[in-house]
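Dear support,

I submitted the protein below through the web form. The confirmation email said the job was done, but the results page showed an empty box. After a refresh the structure appeared. I'm attaching both so you can tell me whether what I see now is the final result or a partial one.
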Amino acid sequence: MGPITRQVIFTGDDFGLSPMVNAAVIQAHQKGILTCASLMNNGPAWQEAVDLAKAHPDLCVGLHLTLIQGRGVLPHRQIPHLVNHQGNFRHDPVGAGFTYFFSRRARQEIRAELEAQVEKTLSAGLPPRFLNGHLNIHLHPAVWPLVRRLAADYDISAVRLARENLTVSLTLNSQRVVYKTVHALIFAWLSRRAAKTVGELKTNDHLFGLLNDGAMDEPFLLGLLPKLAPGVTEIYCHPATLPGREPSWPSHYRPQAELAALTSAKVAEVMQQQNLELISFTDL
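What the results page shows now:
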């Protein structure tokens, strides 16, 4: 038996949020190392994202399930415990998380909304190859069983687990220590819990992008790649073209720096030097 290889999946999240995000995803795929994109199919530019994905069939596209900070696919009358009268989900993750955990009606509506999000993607002619969630909501204890069933019902074979090495992340960027520590502990627990019932679903072994979200720039990647452990690591980013950032993104996000990192010749060279195999979720 040969040595365990180190494989890397680079994913662009929020595909469909805006034309700037869509353009960056395609640019990072064509000219860089991006292999996957997570489609936010309730984003304002989701149809453009679908058209771009069809024009670039080598790009592995999954579904970025949204239950926070976005619009529902179903109207308010069908999911009144999830969205306001304008059809928008709650903006605060903590408040939404408590509602989803304690409200039986909310959980029933979540199942209907997630099914509608998958059906909308299928109706557009783009079968999702993997699942994850906006702000990783798919790992919430009340949401995860529904996601697992969704994957089985629609023959979706892969899902993201958000287990990130806190020590490595802090070594490369020591900012926001409390935030990173809390998030690392929460999502390590959620991922361990989900992994026990993952069944035949394929998953990544390791992940980066959760703790240094929006700042996966060239220096970070150049320091990270030599430190990757054996197995499959997903590195997810939020690239965008043009100055500025999306209004829904936190103020510390640097989407143009992330796009530059994904298309960096230095990053590609280190990938080669480190013998890292670039794959997508379809290769698992």
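Response: this is the final, complete result; the empty box was a page-load delay. The mean pLDDT is 95.
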